Amino acid sequence: MKIVNIILAIIVVYSNICFANIIKTNDFNIIENKIKTVNTDTLVIFDIDHVLLQPKDQLLKSYFEEFRKFIKEIELQAGKAMADELYSLMLTQVQIEPVDKKMILLVNKIQKNGIKVLALTHCYTKPFGKISSIEDWRIQDLKNLGYYFDKSWSQLKNAELKQLLSKNSKKFPMFKQGIVFTNGHSKGDALKAFLNYATLKPKKILFIDDKMAFLESVETFAHKASIEFLGIEYTAVKDSIVPLNKERAKLQLNVLKTKHKWLSDQEADGIK
Description:
Number of domains: 2
Number of helices: 12
Number of strands: 10
Oligomer: single chain
Shape: globular
């Protein structure tokens, strides 16, 4: 019994050491202050959804949980092709906004200071429903808000990161215009593949994401690669979620299903 307790204690200590460099905050100022301490030997990485941008409508701000349930029901009733079509129509019609406008200025400022900035998203690539290229759609969303991640990588060509083995050869991670799309792979593995492709080994990685599992994935890679790591779990969106207006959400989903149109909160509230 004593041996078991000792082993458990070692596991706890090891876990704390591995993930001790991840902090949690909903305060932009803390992120800004941490970034002020970095230099050109640091790679600063941002997740996209719920860190840089978010949907304006309440149903979609709540991490899409209710919307995904709706899509699952459509898939069971009408098939995956129809479910993908409705999902893609929502994505192209919904309005987005910055999580914090000051983040746009911060990203541009550190780029001007010669610090490499990368976006790292769990997003898939290639066509999806009515969207001919998910990666191009996401890149354009970012540019519309003022994020230009290609500024840090002007000499690096877009590429599929095929050195990362894939169960599906059509779904390799992709680097495009300063963004790594993991295509369903872990963020740690996708980042490793990108750094190999870019022949880059930073002394430090500072990574901002809203999901702890993604932060831990990159932290694990950094630890194995002997790269100093600081992770920030940014919870501004998560902490701002309020109880869902279910009547409005029901109307929005019904109109999407029957008319293939996404109603904004304002449009839905205007319908009596």
